[in-house]
Write a structure and sequence with these properties.
With 201 residues, the chain is mainly alpha-helical. The protein has six helices and two strands. It has helices at 12-38, 43-73, 92-113, 120-139, 143-164, 171-200; strands spanning 9-11, 79-82. It has a two-stranded antiparallel sheet with strand order 1-2. The longest helix is centred in the N-terminal third of the chain and has 31 residues, at 43-73.
C-alpha cells in the first residue's frame, strides 16, 4: 500500500504577516537604492526617474497596506499555502557575514586601488543579488531567488550598457540604483498580489 502525504500548510494570517515583513524590509532597502540612483541624475532623466519611482513605490505601499488589512481580517485558523522547505546549507548569519566581507573588500578595492568609485554600486548589486540565492533556500522563500537573479542581471547589464555601450557615466550609479529599487519594490507588489489571491481562495 502506497502512503500519500500532503504538504504541511501554514496559517494564512502568519503567511500574510511574513510576506508583509519581507515586503517592508525589501521596500526600505529599495528606498536606499533608489536615492543613490536618483542622486546621479539631473534634468529630464531625473524627472522621469522621480515620477516612475514614486508610482512604483506607491504600488508597493498599497500592496503592504492591503496585506496588513488582510492579516487583520482573515479567520484565526484559516490555512494558506504549503510551507516551503528550508534546504539551505548556510545559516542566515553566515550569508550576511559573507555578503558584508564581499561588499567591503570589493568596494574598497574599486575605490582605493582601481580608483573607479563609480563601479561600486554595480559591484554592490552583484553581491547583494548573489546573497539572495542561498538566502532563499535558508529562509524557505523561493521568490528571493527571482529577486537575486534580477539584481544580478542589473549588475551584469550596467557595464555592458555603460562601459561598452557608450552611455553617460552617470548611469554607472543610476542603473543599478534605480534598477535594484524597481526589483525590490516590484517584489513587494508581487508578494501582495499572491497573498491577496490566497486570502480570496
Amino acid at each position: 500500500m502506497v502512503m500519500s502525504s500532503t504538504p504541511e500548510r501554514r496559517l494564512l494570517r502568519k503567511q500574510i504577516r511574513g510576506g508583509l515583513t519581507g515586503a517592508l524590509t525589501g521596500s526600505l532597502f529599495g528606498g536606499l537604492w533608489y536615492l543613490l540612483g536618483l542622486s546621479s541624475l539631473s534634468g529630464a532623466p531625473f524627472t522621469i526617474a522621480l515620477v516612475g519611482g514614486c508610482l512604483l513605490l506607491g504600488l508597493a505601499l498599497l500592496s503592504m497596506l492591503n496585506m496588513a488589512w488582510l492579516a487583520a481580517r482573515v479567520p484565526e485558523g484559516a490555512l494558506g499555502g504549503p510551507a516551503s522547505e528550508r534546504t539551505g546549507r548556510y545559516g542566515f548569519t553566515t550569508i550576511l557575514i559573507a555578503e558584508s566581507i564581499a561588499l567591503g573588500a570589493g568596494n574598497t578595492y574599486l575605490q582605493n586601488t582601481l580608483h573607479r568609485p563609480e563601479w561600486m554600486l554595480t559591484w554592490s548589486a552583484l553581491v547583494v543579488g548573489v546573497h539572495f540565492l542561498p538566502l532563499a533556500n535558508t529562509l524557505g522563500v523561493p521568490m528571493l531567488k527571482g529577486v537575486g537573479v534580477g539584481m544580478i542581471a542589473i549588475g551584469v547589464a550596467t557595464p555592458l550598457l555603460v562601459g561598452l555601450g557608450g552611455l553617460p557615466d552617470s548611469l554607472w550609479q543610476a542603473l543599478p540604483g534605480l534598477g535594484c529599487a524597481a526589483v525590490l519594490w516590484g517584489a513587494a507588489v508581487v508578494t501582495g498580489t499572491r497573498n491577496r489571491a490566497l486570502a480570496a481562495a
